[in-house]
Design a protein that fits this description.
Strand content: 35-45%
Order of helices and strands: EHHEEHEEHEEEE
CATH class: Alpha Beta
Helix content: 10-25%
Shape: globular
CATH topology: Cyclic Phosphodiesterase, Chain: A
CATH architecture: Alpha-Beta Complex
Oligomer: single chain
Radius of gyration: 17 Å
Number of strands: 9
Strand order of the largest sheet: 2-6-5-4-7
Number of helices: 4
CATH superfamily: Cyclic phosphodiesterase
Number of domains: 1
Largest sheet: 5 strands, antiparallel
Length: 182
């Protein structure tokens, strides 16, 4: 099974994010927009693992719990990856909680290193809202009159199973670790 760890976006906020990007979705209809149920902040991509390995992965995730305190993440403004060359990903940028999110990702990466090699690039938390299809000309987005801003308290990290389907990836929660109560 193909798995990754991520911060889930609270359900109450998912609809707000979709509504706040509606103008962009209409303006740039050739992009592949992330569905409401698929909104998340990827922390660690593990790739293919055997189903029998899931309990050990969840146990490794649980090992970060003593240092995992809930924290606030606030997002505002759009960005694209990569910064040079044709854009492939459109995302909403975090403005607050970046360091806490990076520390959480690094702690998970250390615990999960046996299942996935560490990333070579520095982790930058972001919320992907669209992907640019190959050979799609996507200019700098015109965002006048669009205010994409939201925030929430990170209280869980989820292990998701990614199921690839013709209409795109679908994500199923396999397990989770919850922040300590302080």
């Amino acid at each position: 099974m193909r798995v990754f760890t991520a911060v889930p976006i609270p359900e109450a906020l998912q609809e707000d994010i979709i509504l706040s990007t509606a103008v962009l979705r209409g303006r740039y209809s050739k992009l592949k927009w992330v569905s409401q149920q698929a909104l998340h902040i990827t922390l660690n991509f593990l790739g293919e693992i055997e189903e029998e390995t899931v309990p050990q992965v969840l146990s490794a995730m649980e090992a970060v719990r003593p240092a995992f305190n809930s924290f606030d993440l606030e997002f505002r403004g759009l960005g694209v990856f990569p910064r040079r060359g044709p854009a492939r990903v459109v995302y909403v940028e975090p403005q607050r909680g970046i360091q806490q999110c990076q520390k959480l990702q690094q702690a998970l990466a250390r615990q999960l290193a046996v299942y996935a090699p560490p990333e070579r690039k520095k982790f930058r938390p972001h919320l992907t809202i669209a992907r640019v299809k190959p050979h799609t000309d996507w200019p700098e987005p015109e965002t006048e009159g669009i205010d994409i801003a939201f925030g929430f308290t990170v209280q869980r990290v989820v292990l998701y199973k990614s199921i690839l389907k013709p209409d795109g990836a679908h994500y199923e929660e396999v397990g989770a670790v919850t922040a300590r109560v302080t």
